[in-house]
Design brief:
The complex is a heterodimer of chains A (384) and B (362). Chain A is α+β, with helices and mostly antiparallel strands. Chain A has 15 helices and eight strands. With 362 residues, chain B is an all-alpha fold. Chain B contains 14 helices and no strands. In chain B, helix 11 crosses helix 13. The chains are: A alpha+beta (384), B mainly alpha (362). Chains A and B meet through helix 4, helix 5, helix 7 and helix 14 of A and helix 6, helix 10, helix 13 and helix 14 of B.
Amino acid sequence: MSGTGIEMHGLDIRPVEGSRPEDQEFEINMGPQHPSTHGVMRFLVRLKGETVESVTPYCGYIHRGIEKMCESLTYPQIVHLTDRMDYLSAHINNEAVCLAVEKALGIEVSDRVKYIRTILDELTRIASHQLWWSAFGMDLGALTTFFYGMRDREKILDIFEETTGGRLIQSYNIPGGLMRDIHPNFQKRTKEFIRYFRPKLKEYHDLLTGNVIFRNRTVGIGVMSKEEAIAFGATGPTGRGSGWSCDVRKRLPYSAYDRVSFNEVLMAEGDSYARYMVRMKEMEESMNIIEQLIENIPEGNYAEKMKAIIKLPEGEYFQHVETARGELVVHIISDGNKNPYRVKFRSPNFSNLSVIDKISRGMKIADLIAISGSLDLVIPDLDR
Amino acid sequence: MTGLVYDFSVITQSIDHYLVSHWGPSLAATIEFVLVGILYLLIYALVGLMLVYAERRICAFIQCRLGPNRVGPQGIFQTIADFIKLLLKENIRIERADKLLFFVAPFIIIVGSFLAFGTIPFAKGLHALDPDIGLFFIMAATSIGVIGILLAGWSSNSKYSLIGAMRSGAQIVSYELSVGLAIVTMVILTGTLQLSEIIEMQRDGWFIFKGHIPAILSFVILLIAGTAETNRGPFDLAEAESELTAGFHTEYSGIKFAFFFLAEYMNMFVLASVATTLFLGGWMPLHLGNFETFNHVMDFIPPLVWFLVKVFTVIYIIMLFKWTYPRLRIDQLLSLEWKYLLPINLFNLILMSVIVLLGLHF
């Protein structure tokens, strides 16, 4: 071996340029095709042996220019594009645009719509957290979690399919209400699901939460302080795991969130385990919210009468919603036409991703996987 | 010695006599070597495929799935079909890889596990090798495997492979210590390294019952350390697919990949066999005190069946580990070995010596 790393028989593994060979610093491209980036995402990881020196995320592999496309589409059409951002919170994304448009036009939707939207929001949140739990376990090497989570998520997707017609992406919201009324089975099946899922959630805890290896892999790993969470704008369960009270459902209630009582789950530790526990408890809270609403969905119109062509008055309109990953903000600038002048989505994943370099330095490669899993990234939302 | 005895040495010796009387001793020995070699290669591949199938069905069972159930009855031919597919697949040549080492690595791994496989006593008189240093031979043969893993990771010219190889180097070398000490603890009790003798000594009771606490302790340690040594979950850091895609065999394809795959499963089989032989009485039937009828019925079950049942029970436990637990991190893995298993093991060794010296065992 010569002085410049490993050079033997034409092998081509070289240390980072400019570093001392004895430090054994290497750069590894994790992605764009890698089993645990959960999408087309590339981390350029600088390693010192097994220890992570720095992480540089490279995004844009799945950039589709959704914000630019919105400028040439009408408002009801934009709703369908938002499905393709955070596909695991599709219903909540739809709702953000619809709420913004309704606010701009001064339309008050019926209570029925508000209740149904909220119930579906929470079902979406549970489904998303189930998928995250499955994938998080798999990132840590517990392969069985994947099938448990998927098995239970299927029940929610069936409810979605019956009522909205779509399983993953629904486009059930339209400006002014809902596309159609709920299926007669909706209430029955949702209640059935909650009865089914409460014991299953205990099973999740039995399988993973109490496991000593799991504790060792997550407790104290990737610690993010409250100040850092605020500085990076890490919202959602990621921010709440650091003790930052950032739940939009509490701060700026929309739909029927002001009529239900629920706890904002907060953990102070800020490590991967805290983020994990926040999501696990949020699933319970979501079930509580659904239980409060599902019994008494009021009668009323499922959609308000809207004009054939929706034109927003000139001005700027904001809407915050809480997706399963954090705070989604829709910012519409209208010049009075049927198309928006400019649309900006503030996606939670982009801000959540930005902390990864900060919190994974000095950790091991395996920890980097655990951390990126605990941030719960959805790459299409990140690139848009 | 009561009851029925299935002794395969009668059959093997009669074949030997027949061959010697026809061709003379030297040619007969050559023919026997070839015959046994081919037979063992076939059994090796067959058991390996069976284990892959078992693993897929068991993990499906744990994960609320069905698993392979289309090719043949209950899908038993699925792994054979997969194996044929792997045989026919292209061997991808890696640009700028070390050609010789890249080619040799899978063979080293398979030779290591095949050598150890040869010493397994399936039943009385039914093993290819029975050296008087049997346990030592198995330890030596299985440690050849790590060279193959290191070479595979080194020669692939891939950083992921290199990290995988580095991890498994550290891991296997550490855990071999625990496996070795757990075996040594039992050797103090047995007083011999020869596998056939160890089994004979368990005629009146398995060592896990005869050896008091230290035997149970070293059985648990052997299971944990052996799982780590065979690179299986939760210790599968060398091929941690969520971190390193596939670790040291990332760049391998076709039959060479199949070799790694097969060797992993056969190492598990060897480990389970060693555990069975040392602790669970090998092919000895289960006897319960003075229940003559029960013991007599147990004697009727052929020793080969006894052996396989015990081995597969151990394998099932090892598979349960993999499909239940998350993976450890490399530093946690090493601290588990050096800070916990090794001290417990050394203490256990002393405890066993005291028990044997004072004659406290049954």
